[in-house]
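Recall that a protein's primary structure is simply its ordered list of amino acids. Everything else, from secondary elements to tertiary packing, is in principle encoded there. The following example makes that idea concrete.
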Amino acid sequence: MRISTRLHRSIYRWVGIMSAGAAALLVANSAWAQAPAAPAAAPAAPPSWQQGRSADQAKSPLHPFAPHFTGRTSADLPLDKLKVPPGFKVEVWVEGVPEARSLALGDKGTVFVSNRNLTEVYAIVDRGDKREIKKLFTGMKVPNGVAFSKGTLYVAERHRITRYDGIEDALDNPPAAKVVIDNLDPSAQAGHFWKYLAMGPDGKLYFNVGAPGNIVLPNYNQATMQRVDPNTGVLETVAQGVRNSVGMDWHPRTKELWFTNHARDWISDDLPNDTLHRVSRKNMNFGYPFCHQGDLLDPEFGKGRSCKEFDAPAAKLGPHIAPLGMRFYTGKMFPAEYQNNMFVAMHGSWNRNTKHGYNVMRVTTDAAGKVTGMKPFLEGFLTDDKGDPPMWGRPVDVLQLRDGSMLVSDDFNGIIYRISYKK
């Protein structure tokens, strides 16, 4: 009887446990059946170029224009539309250089060409009656900046600057990269990470570090102009408050640094202007993100600020006109009145209902360095100011050759043009 009672008690406990478990399972199943469906996946983040767009611009059809990454042949283009002043001639110098961007000239006449969306750097060797294209490097990360000095080619990627010594004697077997400075893009952020590169008269490499978005508060080294000593790797800030510069040069007489700058998007068709800047002293701050074009407070970041806190630009170039490469002319081929004039490549607007730009502008200054005038020098790429796309070509950079002629790169078609003058 004692054994039987114990067995009965065990059976009762087992039945109770199973009953409780079954009840719990029923409750759980009921709760699961009544639970709401899993939330839908969050919508994809908008592209970085839409950042800063206001609610009333949410349905705007405006968008950037991608280049033809494989390039186009000159035979397919309306070259007869191109216009230059009387006495000047524009012609195709070389084609088949995909997304041709920044230009640099070697001591032996080699022209080095970068790209931005692709991964290559090219060398163009002038054979007189034709040009030979050599692919120097591939697999690079946004190699937009190229500069040449004393036998060495420097390349600025999004994250570092490298050097290639004796490059013109090794175009078919380029030397290994030597790092000048690294960790320039530690966060790998979106925004204006590509860099323009130039060698200054002080022997230091100058480059931009763009803002990480259209209109954002940058960290201490973003939205700046920087320079690095190629021998020591020591980095210095040249100027602050610069949203995105993609072109610079030094005045032949004053040796002052001048550079182009892109203002923010998504305020209006006519505001703000893109700008031209002159660095006349140390620690200049040109206002981004608080003030644009020297006199326009930002709708968000400008609250409680004054444009008088900051340095004004040397000139307003036009709203959303996208100024890129710029060089002072010091050659002997062009007429004397062109000496020390500035030539600025206007990539052309996208964030504007009526498009403009898509040309090369001639900018004059007086003896004191003040801008005195601007007029078109090379035009004809714009075909329909309300078209999509509105143009058939886009100037990016300008480069003076040793004979005094000028090259103009066109990343939209992968073509480089040459402008010459004959009395």
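Residues 1-33 have pLDDT under 50 and may be disordered. The two ends are 129 Å apart (CA to CA).
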